[in-house]
Amino acid sequence: MEEQLLQSIKYLLQLLICLQEMLKRFLYMEEQLLQSIKYLLQLLICLQEMLKRFLYMEEQLLQSIKDFLQLLLNLQEMLKRFLYRSEHFLQTFKFLQIK
Q1: Burial bucket for residue 1 (CB in 10 Å: 0-12, 13-18, 19+)
Q2: pTM of the predicted model, to two decimals?
């Protein structure tokens, strides 16, 4: 009976060793997965930094366009006044020619 008990313990130990080896593989896989996730996170941080620059550039571009449009509006107002004066001058000139 003692012999059977020893054989059973030996068998259980062998099973535990097999289980331990299987779990080692999972541990290794988990470490690899964690390393991959860490690497992906680093890539995402780099991408985020690159996109921040583009966002800043886009904001600068939009501000420049806004400033340019404001300049165009100012120029349009100046040209309107000039056009009005030119029309007034032409009307006056025509009126003087008629007399």
Answers
A1: exposed
A2: 0.48
